[in-house]
Design brief:
The structure is a homodimer of 143-residue chains.
Chain A lengths: L16 H9 L4 H9 L6 H5 L7 H13 L3 E5 L7 E5 L1 H4 L2 H14 L7 H25 L1
Helix pairs in contact in A: 6-7
Chain B binds a DNA duplex (30 and 30 nucleotides) through helix 3 and helix 4.
Chain lengths: 143, 143
DNA sequence: GTTTTTTACTTGCTTATTGCAAGTGATTCT
DNA sequence: AGAATCACTTGCAATAAGCAAGTAAAAAAC
């Protein structure tokens, strides 16, 4: 009769909603993994590892575990290869796309090096919902 | 002729825009300080300290320094009291309101304890821009 | 069919960050 | 004058991050 506590789930710091969200995604790596899942179509451990920010493999393992525990990510064996594992975003993760888009928009405004996707930054301001729909559609096409 | 490096500014991990934003706000505390500044009208060290999440004073000091270095926050002496310091958000911080609102909306959807501001959550979905304008207006009224 | 490579991780260790408790000097309140 | 408040510091223990190397299983190459 002992309540099992999942060590990968955060302990709540307050009942503020901003704080709640930060308990899950308030660090330098979690949203980058979600970015790779939601925007870049990455599905394998090796793909996340290969991202430009150079995440360490032990940190990536831990973040994926936390994301699975938080039900933001689903982990399942790759049907095409018995040694591969597939990670995919859940609806709860898809629902974070607007957060990511707002971060991109903000960076587009203040990051001096941000050129490549400046067009996207404009579109986010002018037609946000359409951009969200587009990203979601691209996600659906992959599954 | 030596370039001074501000130790309070982050080092960039990649030229991704999501990563850029996380270099500044990717931790458990920074956005909570901004929440207090942007939503709760807090302006003094003691007020941030008193928030429900119980930030340690040394961490708060560090975060405020980083926010000032990042030009998200302005620090100035309180004209009403010689021992008080006033912290206030810059336009760059105000521009993060949509990010915060999306976090609140997301929590409103997945946080089982989130009742108090469920009405707000609905409004964010239906009339986002008006909510942003409202928060900004409330900010302006204070200065 | 054996060697090589790839895959998804672990492990061990060092360094950096966080958290806690207590303290500080300068105000300001009583 | 004395106590409380202000915006911080300081010291130290605990936790987390970062780095390099290793591992077993599976798949690809030869």
């Amino acid at each position: 009769m002992n309540k099992e506590v999942n060590k990968d789930l955060p302990t709540r710091r307050s009942n503020c909603s901003v704080s709640y969200a930060l308990d899950y995604i308030g660090d330098k790596w979690t949203l980058l993994v979600l970015r790779d899942l939601l925007f870049n179509g990455k599905r394998h451990f090796r793909d996340f590892l290969a991202s430009d920010e150079n995440i360490a493999s032990n940190i990536l393992t831990q973040r994926l575990k936390q994301l699975v525990a938080a039900e933001l990510v689903l982990r399942r064996p790759d049907p095409d290869s018995r040694r591969s594992v597939i990670y995919e975003p859940t609806a709860k993760a898809v629902d974070l796309i607007p957060v990511l888009l707002e971060l991109i928009r903000w960076s587009g405004k203040y990051d001096p090096q941000f050129r490549m996707t400046a067009k996207l930054a404009r579109r986010i301001e002018e037609d946000r919902d359409a951009v969200v729909a587009e990203v979601v559609a691209r996600l659906g096409a992959k599954n």
